[in-house]
Amino acid sequence: MSHEDLRIVVGLGNPGSEYTHTRHNIGFMILNKLAEKHSANFKNKKNLFGQIAEIRNGTKQLRLLLPETYMNNSGQAIRACLNWYDIEISQILVLVDDMDLPLGRLRLRTSGGSGGHKGLLSTIQHLQTENFPRLRVGIGAPAGLDETRKLNTVSHVLGNFSKEEQPVIEKVLDEVIIGIDLIQQIGFIKASNQLNRCMPLQNEF
Asked: What is the pTM of this model?
């Protein structure tokens, strides 16, 4: 894979103001901040089941996709987007929250299973492959023993980040934006060596 490969970055999440600041929407948060940095606006594309913004990094164009299909059917928008723009599966990057990673930890992979994440599962089903790049962003797990954690999973991922976590999340958003730029410059493999070494960002409290 060359550094020219990245064409579309997809942020997984749920549309609607009630989900804006939830842990499950970390993908949306990243792309909204990236679009803001480039003074780009998202436009609703009904045929793509989502919102699209376009940014430029020098001579390189990058499209940002926010699916409007809700998390569990994210793959519908991704498949439609790939077809419309004639993009290869290897040319996308999916940003996804990961409860199994500590808050702030990043994990870039070019393939892999869903890990139980409904948004990734939908993407795998619609693309009919597990071989697509994804950047998992750690949101931490609910406290408690295994059984308690299972019961609290939904409320955890659909809950807002705490006030104490907010400074960490701001750093994470910036770190991922730098990572996307890095992928464009040196490609997925080399960028993964750098991003995956990032230790969890510590709360400053």
From this structure: 0.90
